[in-house]
UniProtKB/TrEMBL annotation:
This is D-beta-hydroxybutyrate dehydrogenase, mitochondrial. GO terms for molecular function: oxidoreductase activity. Gene3D superfamilies: NAD(P)-binding Rossmann-like Domain. The chain crosses the membrane at residues 48-68. Coiled coil: none annotated. SUPFAM superfamilies: NAD(P)-binding Rossmann-fold domains. Residues 1-33 are annotated as: Disordered. Keywords: Membrane, Transmembrane, Transmembrane helix. Pfam families: adh_short. InterPro entries: NAD(P)-bd_dom_sf (IPR036291), SDR_fam (IPR002347). It comes from Parnassius mnemosyne. The lineage of its organism: Eukaryota, Metazoa, Ecdysozoa, Arthropoda, Hexapoda. One of its GO terms (biological process) is steroid metabolic process.
Amino acid sequence: MAAGDVTRRASITAPSMHRRPSARRGSLIKNPQTQSQEVPWDIIDRCALPIVLCHAFAVVLSTLLNALHLSQVSVFTLFLWFSISVTGSLWFYHNLQVTAAGKAVLVTGCDNVLGNALARRLDDLGYHVFAGFQNKAGNIDADMLKEDCSGRLHTLQLDITSETQILSASLYIVDHLPEGAQGLWAIANCESWCALGELEWVPFSVIRRAMDVNLLGPARLVQVMLPLVRRARGRIVMASSILTHVAAPVRGVHAASLAALEALAACLRRELKPRGVDVVVVAAGEYTTGSAWLSEEKLLEQARDMWKRLSDEQKGAYGEDYFEQALRSLEKYTKSADADLTAVTRALSDGVTRTFPLARYTPVSPREKLKSLLAEHLPRSLYEGLYTD
């Protein structure tokens, strides 16, 4: 769940007292000393196909007008005119936002920095926020969130793998909806369990836990909360990962659980469309989330536990050097304690606040975007030859 220290590489399988400083307040979003490298993939994804169609329509219309001797207008002129018109219309359409007044949003996973940052952003925008914490009692992050935000924000004890806590949260939300609200405007699920390691290394209890948190918990949460969301004709936003489209070693269990979540979301989108409920997936990249999911302390703890559980035969087959190298390959995603979550947080909030949200947002680095496009469109043998990992 985190990566090792780049400058001081103690053995990943040996006990360590190194602790990573906790992210707080301003560092939840980004390091103020660094400039955000966010790429507006949502606008590009929304405009790319219409612009291609503009060119196709320009070619057809120019050919037709010239053949009928009605006009000598060029393809480029028509394409430019169509592109400006369509892009302007799409820009207006894309930026329409719902009013925040009287709307309530449930954000799960506020124990992690991403859920915490999203709850703060939605509170700043004027929404009533129900912030769910897996462990609320004695949690300094919950206390700080309540202290820093407005009176519209409520903190909840909500472990999404607990049926009792989900039902209790639903009753609390019903009792504390803003005046005049017909229901719950949105569910933003930011809870995630990052199980790392090659499949043979990961204990089955960890695999089960990953499925419980990443798939079964969100599914049950939606089941219970859906009547409230349907009444408000709101939306469901699921945090996922670009790894569902890009195969990578050591991340198989994590990617599998989130791929199942995305498949569920795709089907749910079709089921709820007639009822006016949008379903949005935010597939973030490893570079853009960075230490939001991976902390050094948790990775070292997980690595030591996995190594201890391996049989002597397995330890001999893989070797400690290979085991450590495989897990340390993740450290490039956690170089800074102050991860820049601007792109991911904006994508999640756009899923909640936009009048016409995209079905899938991809707040990823340019390198990850290229890799995912090649993974989807290249022949598998060619892609695997390019990316041997």
